[in-house]
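Q: I have 171 residues here and want to know how they pack in 3D. Can you give me a structure?
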Amino acid sequence: MSPRAAWRLEAFGFEHVYDFVGGKLEWRERGLPTVGTGPFHLVAGQVLRPATATCRPDAPAGEVRRRMTASADSICVVTNEHDIVLGRLRWKDLPEDDRAPVEAFMQLGPATVQRREELTALSERMHRAGVKTILVTTPKGRLLGIVNRDDADRFIDERAAHTQRTDEDVT
């Protein structure tokens, strides 16, 4: 809502009026509630979840192994002290030497997307590439979380079903 509209609503007696400067797209990116039947532009921020594990480049492999879940899909996001993404590592990439520093075996420059990445296209790219998760960052590279492909697919299907039901109710 624009500042002008916010002032107008306050003039009508509304007590709790907020000027959300980010706009409707950012509102949805943050997973905040919306109403209406759409069409909605689904974005990565709507299915964003926290990264399951993070570590610093100088962390020893044994410490990281204790933080991660033992599964093929398990990842640890390597960040600096400002949560800027430096790399990532997968469970299967952990060396046997528990003393080895993460920076010696992490994957540098992992793929990232921003919260406003269009979700359907992102899911399709993830399927083509055989990727289960992708990192979500701010434009300056600060980690926000991850998008899990299964979560994205489920959300897309739920929204499509909701839109179809709403369209059927109208006709």
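Q: Anything worth noting?
A: The chain has two domains: 1-32, 41-170. Residues 1-32 form one domain.
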